[in-house]
Design brief:
The chain is an alpha+beta fold and 351 residues long. The chain has 9 helices and 17 strands.
Length: 351
């Protein structure tokens, strides 16, 4: 990965964006893509859209969501502690003892999620959000209420950690890597001349019910759509690969197979991978993919969809870990596949 692209990825990762608070990261994404896209715009939901070849009749939508899991304040007690619930699927067992940033109406303030000392009995065997609180150092409800109110967001404080072998760890890899990938695909396509229109969308609020995806599909009216998300790597100790599959961090992009997926799109992706001599991995999605594709496919008269996912370790934790080499592979795969499209593809399953 070149320096400018890596800097952009780091900028996305360092920009807090829990579902419902994506404005700052979207403005940065749009500023970046305006350097090379033919057109950049946004929609009523807050999705950011970068377009190559907008006059083409055949439209390909690439969706990667920019929102991350986080917390939302739901109560302030009399002693100034902040009670909260999750935005997205956060494991409550991970939270105790973590540092957080709270984004209040008075600005960003620091806090910690309190943890009961082992000397006093330690943590409960079963923890829920009702057992947790954020301590910002305030002494009273009146004091903290000058800076924080109900409905304000918080996220883990987790900086980017560079590991060996071009692997990096940080919160928000799910799915800022996807938002990054679709932007980089547009960047590479800008130097080529695809026969189809390509609409890269940094979608919002995927972690809170795939909210931005439906709007993106409805506005763009694509002829095909690919969700660029993450999936579970299982190449670390303690994972039952017999149950959860065998997916490695650098084993190749992961294609989904199952009822939601248009198999013809997978064929185009496989053809591109073969040309690049690239290994692929496969995961099963019998009923739903759990990605933006699940909403996009129901827009208009129906949209053929596929999923290309990045293997990620430690999903929905502050130390999500990915391979930069694998990110580059996925970008190359999508560019190769799109450049092979003529704009006359028939994706109807029975024809």
């Amino acid at each position: 990965m070149n320096k400018s692209s890596k800097n952009f990825l780091c900028e996305l990762l360092n920009t807090p964006s829990p579902s419902g608070m994506e404005k700052e990261i979207q403005l940065k994404w749009m500023k970046y893509t305006k350097q090379f896209a033919d057109k950049v715009e946004s929609d009523i939901m807050g999705n950011a859209i970068a377009i190559i070849n907008p006059k083409a009749k055949f439209r390909v939508l690439l969706a990667g969501h920019c929102d991350e899991i986080g917390f939302i304040i739901n109560k302030i007690d009399d002693d100034g502690y902040l009670l909260f619930t999750s935005v997205g699927g956060i494991n409550a067992k991970i939270a105790p003892g973590m540092q957080v940033d709270v984004f209040g109406h008075g600005g960003k303030i620091s806090g910690v999620i309190g943890v009961n000392a082992e000397h006093h009995g330690g943590l409960k065997e079963k923890i829920s959000y009702e057992d947790l609180f954020i301590d910002c150092g305030a002494k009273t409800k009146k004091e903290i209420s000058k800076m924080v109110q109900i409905g304000d967001f918080a996220v883990y404080r987790s900086g980017i950690l560079e590991l060996r072998n071009d692997r990096i760890s940080c919160k928000g890899m799910d799915d800022k890597t996807g938002s990054f990938i679709v932007a980089e695909v547009i960047k590479k396509l800008a130097k080529k001349k695809p026969k189809v229109g390509v609409y890269a969308v940094s979608t919002v609020s995927e972690e809170a019910g795939l909210q931005g995806a439906y709007s993106a599909g409805a506005v763009i009216k694509p002829d095909m759509a690919i969700a660029c998300d993450v999936t579970f790597a299982t190449d670390y100790p303690g994972v039952n690969t017999s149950k959860y599959g065998d997916y490695s961090l650098e084993g190749g992009p992961v294609l989904a197979k199952g009822a939601p997926i248009n198999s013809k799109i997978n064929t185009y992706l496989e053809k591109a991978a073969k040309k690049l001599k690239m290994e692929l991995q496969y995961e099963l999605t019998p009923e739903r993919t759990g990605t933006d594709a699940d909403r996009i496919k129901y827009t208009g008269d129906g949209v053929p969809v596929a999923c290309v996912s990045l293997p990620i370790r430690y999903m929905h934790s502050p130390v999500e870990t990915v391979s930069l080499k694998e990110i580059d592979k996925e970008i190359d795969l999508l560019v190769e596949m799109i450049m092979g499209l003529t704009g006359k593809e028939n994706l109807k399953p029975l024809e």
